[in-house]
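Quick log. Single chain, no ligands specified.
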Amino acid sequence: MLTASLWENALLGHENSLSRGPMIDVESAKKSCREIIERFGVMTPSELVPAFVLSGGNQQKLVVGRNLATAPKVLIAAHPTRGIDVGAQAAVWDEIRRSRDAGMSVLLVSADLEEILGLSDRILVMFDGKISAELDPKKATPQILGKYMTGAQ
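-> predicted structure:
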C-alpha cells in the first residue's frame, strides 16, 4: 500500500495484536513501526510518511521487518531481495539468518543462487514442476544448481 503511511503498512497482518477491542491502538501501532524502522535500518524521517517516498530497498526492509516483528514460527520468504540494492540485501539476509538461527523455520523461494547458497540448510531444486534434487548447500555450487534447474542433470 504505497499511499498508506509506514505505520499503516507495518500494521498489516498484525491488527489483532495491536487492537483494543474493535479499535486499532494507533499509538502502539506507531511504536511498533518505529521499532521495526530502528531494528531494520529503514531510512525514513518518520513512521508517518507514505511508503512511496522510500526506496525499494527500504520498502523491502519494512516488509521483512513487519513479517519478522512477531517472531513467527515459520517464515515463507519469496524472492525477499529481488530488485533491491546490495546494502539492503545484506540487511535482509542478516535478519533472515538471525531469525533462522533463533529457531524460526524459513522456506526460501528464490532464483538468486547466491541467496539460496548463503541462507539455506537444505536445498530442493525444482524442474518441470517436480523436485529434481535435494542438495547440501555446503557442497552445492551455482553450476550444480543450474544443471538441476535446467534438467541437464
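The two ends are 42 Å apart (CA to CA).
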